[in-house]
Specification:
The chain has 113 residues and is α+β, with helices and mostly antiparallel strands. It has 2 helices and 6 strands, in the order H-E-H-E-E-E-E-E. The strands form 2 sheets. It has a 3-stranded mixed beta sheet, covered by helices on one side. A 3-stranded antiparallel beta sheet has the order 4-3-5, with no helix packed on it.
Amino acid sequence: MHELSLMEGVLALIEVERRAQVFSRVRTVRLSVGALGHAEPEALRFCFDAVVSGTVADGATLEIDIVAGQGWCQGCERQVPLPERYAGCPICGSPSVRLTHGDELRLAELEVN
């Protein structure tokens, strides 16, 4: 389950921010998770609870915002929605679409005190 190592990475980022911003508790962690990525939101939630136990984020709420898939079509030179990885352009049918959004996992926001 790679979600465990992803959440360990998020906790490491929280610790970096704690030292830089000097806060004592994390109340909310908001992640942006790509719909076309390989991280399952429910597995992230489960692993988050396990990883933050006994840390500055113990008891924090995890909020996950899903980022829809988008790509750049080289055929019609437009940003297009992508319902799945490696999908062709829904506008012109070109198979040359480069994924631009929907594969990320990003620490978007921390609510602290």
